[in-house]
Amino acid sequence: MNKAELVASIAEKSNLTKKDAESALNAFMEVVEETLASGDKVQLVGFGTFEVRDRKAREGRNPRNPEEVIQIPASKAPVFKAGKGLKEAVNK
């Protein structure tokens, strides 16, 4: 499902126009992005949790030259952990 299909589905289920549904979806994504950037997490009980995890610096291999070792710097990665309700719905 792409964004346009998601907007159409939200509009249908919530009796909103596609324009209003897209606006709501964009607002949701913006709030999640801002919250994660500030170091907090977004927890939706029954659905899941969006959070940021730190990745340590590590060594890797250059894909073009596997003999060359390169340093991969430390970074932060956004992570989604599915909640119990979502896991149960997927595993039906």
TrEMBL record:
Listed GO MF terms: DNA binding; identical protein binding; structural constituent of chromatin
Taxonomy of the source species: Bacteria, Bacillati, Bacillota, Tissierellia, Tissierellales
Name of this chain's protein: Non-specific DNA-binding protein HBsu signal recognition particle-like (SRP) component
GO CC entries: cytosol; DnaA-HU complex; HU-DNA complex
InterPro entries assigned: Hist_DNA-bd, Histone-like_DNA-bd_CS, IHF-like_DNA-bd_dom_sf
GO term, biological process aspect, one: chromosome condensation
Native source species: [Clostridium] ultunense Esp
Family the UniProt entry places it in: Belongs to the bacterial histone-like protein family.
Keywords, sorted A to Z: DNA condensation, DNA-binding
CDD domains: HU (cd13831)
Keyword Lipoprotein: no
Secretion signal span: none
PANTHER family membership: DNA-BINDING PROTEIN HU, DNA-BINDING PROTEIN HU-BETA
Keyword Zinc-finger: no
